[in-house]
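Example 3.2
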Amino acid sequence: MSELKCKDPVAVNLWYAIAPLEDVKDARVQRSVLLEQPIAYTRNDAGDVVVWAYEGRPGDAPGDRALPVKERFGYFWTTLGMPERDIFPIPEYEEEDRRNIHAASFGVNASAPRLVENFLDMGHFPFVHTDILGAEPHTEVKEYFVEVSEERDEILASNCKFWQPMAAASSSGGADVDYIYRVPHPFCSVLYKSSPLDDGRNDVIAIFIQPFNQEQVRVHMLLSLLDDNSDDTQIRLFQQTIFGQDKPILENQYPKRLPLDPRAETPIRADKSAIAYRRWLSGKGVAYGVIPPSA
């Protein structure tokens, strides 16, 4: 295999979700792209998912360059490098009474960091997700806390509260919703939001982003919910509606890559988590999908 096109060692040495396991059922070879590198995957005779990098020729076979595989959260993950860390945990996924659902995989013409930052932004709820996740005059983003943990190597935004007309497919009316945001991976984020059906526990929504290149991605959305009332189709349609509203906003942002220079885009108080995320990426030396401060 020729030299990797991605020159960012941070990006190369990460784990990436490629597809839900439910979509890899047989020996049919499927193809995708990760960090500009063509990859292929299938199930072997033993029933295991196998992944390999190839040069783009139809005859390329698994032996060309086998890639490591991990199965986690209903997806298979791979890497082009040698990650020092395991895939981050989501303990709620293992709870027996949860509905673990692959909501969808969306192609988006934007950089991975732009998607993470949009996922962290509560301020757009009333204007982009009107009458679902927000509505005027309830536009204030109240004070919240942001922690950057070196030990866990992640960002945590807590005490996030926002009034929502319809927070989930199972909601019966408007309510103040509590949010906690985690960024445990430069291109993944996990959201915990108060459940309409259990005051003491949270629903979980996670996005796992697979960068095709620096300005095109596929984002996989996992739901881990406390919901015995809605069927899978209702739940998926609700989340797909939300993301369908975000997609044109994301694709029309300019520049498509996320600027890390704090002077490039003017933040407001509500952007505390986004500011922390940009600083975190800069401190890690992430260069893929961003515009570095010196650029």
